[in-house]
Write a structure and sequence with these properties.
Helices cover 32% and strands 4% of the residues. It has 361 residues and is mainly alpha-helical. It folds into two domains: 137 residues, no CATH class; 135 residues, Orthogonal Bundle (Cytochrome Bc1 Complex, Chain D, domain 2), CATH 1.10.760. The strands form four sheets. It has a two-stranded antiparallel sheet. A two-stranded antiparallel ribbon has the order 3-4.
Length: 361
């Protein structure tokens, strides 16, 4: 028995020794790690890649398309927009509140904003204040652009600097306009939360001027409170594009007086194509923005649709519009009204404004 026990013990010991030798041989046979190749640390492996840098001019162009900057600040020529002189202003819009015209925002130093600093341009865009400290009329939607982030405002300035300088003096708007001048505080620079479709949609919808038209004014045209935003009712007369009166519709989710019966995808289609679910075309002035909006990223437009779709319902029956769209014809004679602006000829007399005195709004 004792002999048998000793033999079993020897067998176990031999097995352990053999196992240890095999393990050692395997360890010796393993290839050595290449010192040039470093394994990523756990915290490095989990770190997301940095997004590629954003080109300021490209981003600024995108913001300008969303906000319709060149749609307004481009005059008419030959019955259509004077695209050869984009941003040179001269668009005249007859309005019951008075005829207003858009200024030259090209980098021309004599008649445009070429002498304005970046900060001065940003302040005019987001606060409605010219370099001389005077306040703009609210027909310039600085109340909406006040929501613009610092980065997007800087990008917009970078884009405007790339426009072709056009020497065109546009007469300033008269003091008899009945539009109010409403001071705005400094922009809060609230972030654009791109990870949240509704919050991102709110940011874009603000820059895309939804509340510039779709709100319910009172008799004094006082600024609308939260319960009056998006509920429509603002009346517009735009003889340059047709006859009759246009009422901005209620775009809240009220099913009877708003667009509560529209699906989110239908709202997206309207924004992108300007065709309503009933197959009718959207009228100006919204129609005029289609050229820029149709070029926007679909993900962004879906975010705008998601934001509008969830707006709280506001019951506000808007009168039926009588507006009949009529595309503009040939421009009238020089100096007679809309579309008469043209680049200044070298042999024409001109009055050079003081440095920083180019009008905006």
């Amino acid at each position: 028995m004792r002999t048998m026990a000793i033999m079993k013990l020897r067998f176990v010991v031999c097995a352990l020794v053999v196992g240890a030798l095999v393990a050692c041989n395997k360890k010796k046979e393993e290839p050595k790690a290449d010192p040039a190749v470093q394994e990523p640390k756990p915290d490095q492996a989990m770190k997301p890649k940095e997004p590629p840098p954003v080109d300021p001019v490209q981003r600024g162009s995108y913001i300008a398309e969303a906000a319709g900057c060149l749609t307004c600040h481009t005059g008419m020529a030959g019955g259509g927009p004077d695209l050869a002189n984009a941003g040179a202003g001269g668009l005249e819009m007859p309005d019951p509140a008075g005829t207003w015209r858009t200024p030259n925002i090209t980098p021309d130093k004599a008649s445009g904003i070429g002498n304005w600093t970046d900060d001065q341009i940003m302040r005019a865009v987001r606060e409605g204040v010219r370099p001389d400290g005077s306040q703009l009329y609210v027909i310039m939607p600085y109340q909406n652009f006040n929501r613009m982030t610092d980065d997007d405002a800087k990008a917009l300035v970078a884009f405007l600097r790339t426009l072709k300088p056009v020497e065109r003096v546009v007469a300033p708007n008269g003091k008899d306009l009945k539009f109010p001048k409403i001071p705005m505080g400094k922009p809060a620079n609230q972030p654009d939360v791109t990870t949240d479709p509704v919050k991102h949609g709110e940011y874009l919808a603000t820059l895309m001027l939804c509340t510039h038209c779709h709100w319910t004014p009172d008799a004094k045209m006082a600024p609308a409170g939260p319960d009056k935003m998006y509920s429509g009712g603002l009346d517009m007369t735009i003889p340059m594009f047709g006859t009759g009166k246009l009422y901005a519709p209620n775009i809240t989710s009220d099913p009877e007086t708003g667009i509560g019966k529209w699906k989110e995808d239908e709202i997206f289609t309207v924004i992108r194509t300007m065709v309503k679910p009933n197959s009718k075309m959207i009228s100006p002035p919204m129609l005029l923005l289609q050229g820029g909006w149709s070029q926007m990223d679909e993900k962004d437009l879906h975010a705008v649709a998601a934001f509008i779709h969830q707006l709280p319902p506001v019951k506000n029956k808007v009168p039926d519009s009588t507006f009949q769209f009529k595309p503009p014809g040939p421009p009238p004679a020089a100096g007679s009204g809309a579309g008469s602006a043209a680049p200044m000829k070298k042999d024409e007399p001109k009055t050079t404004p003081k440095k920083g005195a180019a009008k905006k709004g």
